[in-house]
Amino acid sequence: MTEAAAVVITHNSEDVIGACLDSLRGQAAEIVVVDNASSDGTLGEVLRRPGISLIANPWNRGYAAAANQGIQATAAEFALLFNPDAELVCGLDALVEECREPDVAVCGGTLLGPDGCPQHGFMVRRLPTPATLVFEILGINRLWPGNPVNRRYRCLDLDLNPVADVEQPAGAFFLIRRSAWRQLGGLDESFHPLWFEDVDFCKRARQNGYRIRFVAAARAAHRGAHSARQLSPSSREGYWYGNLLTYAAKHFHRLSFAVVCVAVVLGSILRTIVGFFRWRSPNSVLAYGRIIRKAGSLLIAGRKRTPGLALTVPRPSGSTQSGSC
């Protein structure tokens, strides 16, 4: 058993959490589940497994806040943030050994998709640049996935065997050194409810002189998109764009931030048209309208850092939101 604690954030994860926890038993020194107000049988699945600590939040606090809760509740020097739709295959010891280096803050490992193949392009990425985000926002990476900006961002040019310095391992399989987590003040809870909180943590870790490592021998099976599938299209877009703007405002220079805002406005106009005909619902128009107004107001104001940029998109009746990603 390693010296790492495992922290799993759940929200309506009944169908996946059992296999996730079973894969961690005997591998992690502690297992803590932080539940963000699930309305299904998630809590029952957790409680059926003795020896696992449960923190049940009465409302969805978001991924970053729940992750901080979970890490705070553990004592091990290393904390593994692990998605509920993932199952540990092997190599947690290898992650811990690599993270023992005093200048290493985070280690990630190989994520295997449902087909058994590594999830290249997702499990490791470089930190987003203004060009990266513009290409994502305008759909260039979707239309021309082999472009140099996209290849670099998704590390398709990087040899990840057996161990490599990287910029951003996926938050689904994310081992953090506790001392680094404390120094950096934890995950930034202004990224709410999900997306970009792990990217921001890696960015701040590197700014503070830490290294981030990828260990190919550490492996986990990962279904993927567990949280995104629970969100309505309008909520998903609102959360993603809102936290993208939060990240850009926090880390980019004023001119670069302005360029990203312009791209968000243009991309949202295009997606408003496409979304209306695709979903046949005014929700997409309303959602992208909020995004356009937010990006436009920030562009006009010329602000570089505005607290609370993340958009709050009202959920349509019957939809759900997730605090895990």
What does this protein structure show overall?
The protein has 325 residues and is of the alpha/beta class. It folds into two domains: 219 residues, Spore Coat Polysaccharide Biosynthesis Protein SpsA, Chain A; 71 residues, no CATH class. 42% of the residues lie in helices and 19% in strands. The protein is built from twelve helices and eleven strands. Strand 1, helix 1 and strand 2 form a beta-alpha-beta unit. The protein is globular, with a radius of gyration of 19 Å. The chain starts with a strand and ends in a 24-residue tail after the last helix.
Task: Give a nutshell description of this structure.
With 325 residues, this protein is of the alpha/beta class.
Key traits:
11 strands; nine-stranded mixed β-sheet; alpha/beta; disordered C terminus; two-stranded antiparallel sheet; 325 residues; Spore Coat Polysaccharide Biosynthesis Protein SpsA, Chain A
CATH superfamily of the largest domain: Spore Coat Polysaccharide Biosynthesis Protein SpsA, Chain A
Report the span from N to C terminus.
26 Å
SSE-based structural type: alpha/beta
Global outline: globular
> What is the number of independent domains?
2
Strand content: 15-25%
Pick out the low-confidence regions: 304-325
Could you report the average pLDDT, rounded to the nearest whole number? 89
CATH architecture of the largest domain: Alpha-Beta Complex
> Largest sheet at a glance?
9 strands, mixed
Supply the CATH class of the largest domain.
Answer: Alpha Beta
Number of strands: 11
| Distinct helical segment count | 12
- Helix share of residues? 40-55%
Element-level helix/strand string: EHEHEHEEHEEHHHEEEHHEHHH
- State the CATH topology of the largest domain: Spore Coat Polysaccharide Biosynthesis Protein SpsA, Chain A
Radius of gyration: 19 Å
